[in-house]
């Protein structure tokens, strides 16, 4: 089959799949936004299809980010903010963050409510344990609420927030003054209080910069599916860039990968909630 015809068939198939009724999902009763017992706000993201990755030509093209069509077949909830230090400590009983009152970065957070900074210096395993503990709480377990990390496809879909044409960022092609990253004139040289910058069109804050966000998937260079990446690997995917990165690494399509045991002052996460 010619390459162009094959691509058309795949694109058409993805579009048709998104038009078919998804399996019953009792999400409506939580409303457009839900706040759990730990104060984690989650926004409902609609089902749909989108082009994942940047255009295949021009200065954005990269084999690490091949452009392909992805169908998100059912709605899901995702954190409005990255998980904060206060939320992490309530669930896990400790706060590993560098930018907190009792650690090496304390001079950088003088006069700041560090409990509202994103938790960082957490590994992928730490983030998974946090999700498991939330899911195991009786009220959530009995209601069928399951917390997890977003897949890479879900993360980018939520970040792009229903854009009709490709943009480097949720806000357009410039990030100046709109996120916490290293090349902004007002760089903080640390993480920022969550929600300090404007939300995207779907109400999500800090999808660009602040801290890198762990995703569920193992890293792979090829196209990524909505349900997850390869079954095994050595590195886990991180998305969104951080306070110490140039704006280029904070693009909607930018990808990073780290070993799941890695911890650093720019590594955080946000959660996804499944219901039913």
Structure characterization notes:
The protein is of the alpha+beta class. The protein has one domain: paralog of FGE (formylglycine-generating enzyme) (Alpha-Beta Complex). 19% of the residues lie in helices and 17% in strands. The chain contains five helices and eleven strands, in the order αβββββαααβαβββββ. Strands 1-2-5-11-6 form a five-stranded antiparallel beta sheet. A four-stranded mixed beta sheet has the order 9-8-7-10. The longest helix is centred in the first third of the chain and has 17 residues. It is globular and about 50 Å long. The termini are far apart. 41% of the residues are buried. The N terminus is likely disordered.
Write the topology of this structure.
Layout: H1 3-19, E1 33-35, E2 41-45, E3 48-52, E4 68-72, E5 76-79, H2 85-92, H3 124-136, H4 138-143, E6 145-148, H5 152-160, E7 212-218, E8 236-239, E9 255-258, E10 267-268, E11 272-275
